[in-house]
């Protein structure tokens, strides 16, 4: 604990720098070697930053081993409690691996395509939310703790628990390629240790929305038909949930496509 004004100043100075905050967050997940920290924040000025953190009493440094001091642990705990939702970088995340594909089944909506389940380790937990900016067509759901990523017809859902489901793939190979693509995109962001910049705006057009609606013109949404409903969605005058037929199993893929698309309107 800083006991006087000059010690408080040292701590404030130490945590005012983004690289040093990144190091503290990284150590929050366990003790590290200087080499591991170097991989996260780079070699340049590493010793300088470690010295400042040590002088502030936030870390303990013994040869190559670095760990949070008791004060450092309390500091990090206090920071999380005061703002539990804030995750500003990937420093607490570890690179992911794709564990084996667990299940291959025909798609409910299109039996000529497959849906495949897999696992990623370690689970991404709260970092998952940040990944939404990495993929051009994606949407994050707090309620389901899931990230839906759309690429062409393929829909991938990653859950905070580590479970992954890929739908509408032609074969197992295509699923493996897609998983590899996701893995390298995510690991690249984790290696940089920073939240990605906001993604570019995706242009959504009326026909694309209409194409994914059930097109039965049942009127349950309160509109004359699907085309009118698509116009309302485009004008942000209606919510997707009003189209209740989308909840039926045969429209599961359409619903996920639309959930991503309406984010960009
Ligand atoms: S409820 Fe859905 S399927 Fe029925 S008319 Fe409206 S948009 Fe079309």
Automatic annotation (TrEMBL):
Keywords: 4Fe-4S, Iron, Iron-sulfur, Metal-binding
InterPro entries, A to Z: 4Fe-4S_dom, ACDS_complex_subunit, ArsR-like_HTH, HTH_ArsR_DNA-bd_dom, WH-like_DNA-bd_sf, WH_DNA-bd_sf
Domain 4Fe-4S: 201-260
GO MF annotation terms: 4 iron, 4 sulfur cluster binding; DNA-binding transcription factor activity; metal ion binding
Keyword Transmembrane carried by entry: no
PANTHER family per UniProt: ACETYL-COA DECARBONYLASE_SYNTHASE COMPLEX SUBUNIT GAMMA, PTHR36214
Protein name: 4Fe-4S domain-containing protein
Source organism per UniProt: Methanosarcina thermophila (strain ATCC 43570 / DSM 1825 / OCM 12 / VKM B-1830 / TM-1)
Organism taxonomic ancestry: Archaea, Methanobacteriati, Methanobacteriota, Stenosarchaea group, Methanomicrobia
């Amino acid at each position: 604990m800083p006991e006087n004004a000059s010690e408080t100043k040292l701590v404030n100075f130490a945590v005012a720098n983004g690289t040093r905050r990144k190091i503290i967050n990284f150590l929050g997940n366990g003790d590290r070697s200087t080499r591991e920290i170097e991989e996260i924040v780079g070699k340049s000025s590493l010793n300088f930053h470690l010295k400042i953190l040590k002088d502030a009493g936030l870390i303990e440094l013994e040869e190559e081993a670095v760990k949070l001091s008791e004060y450092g642990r309390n500091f990090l705990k206090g920071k999380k409690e005061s703002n539990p939702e804030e995750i500003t970088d990937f420093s607490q995340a570890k690179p992911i691996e794709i564990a084996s594909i667990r299940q291959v089944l025909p798609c409910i909506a299109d039996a000529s395509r497959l849906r495949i389940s897999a696992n990623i380790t370690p689970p991404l937990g709260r970092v998952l939310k940040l990944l939404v900016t990495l993929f051009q067509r994606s949407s994050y759901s707090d309620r389901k703790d899931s990230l839906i990523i759309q690429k062409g017809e393929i829909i991938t859902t990653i859950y905070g628990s580590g479970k992954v489901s890929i739908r509408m793939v032609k074969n197992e190979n295509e699923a493996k390629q897609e998983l590899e693509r996701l893995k390298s995109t995510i690991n690249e962001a984790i290696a940089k240790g920073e939240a990605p910049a906001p993604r570019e705006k995706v242009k959504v057009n009326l026909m694309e929305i209409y194409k994914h609606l059930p097109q039965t013109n049942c009127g349950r949404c309160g509109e004359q038909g699907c085309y009118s409903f698509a116009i309302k969605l485009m004008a942000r005058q209606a919510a997707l949930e009003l189209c209740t037929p989308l909840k039926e199993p045969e429209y599961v893929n359409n619903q996920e496509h639309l959930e991503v698309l309406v984010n960009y309107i």
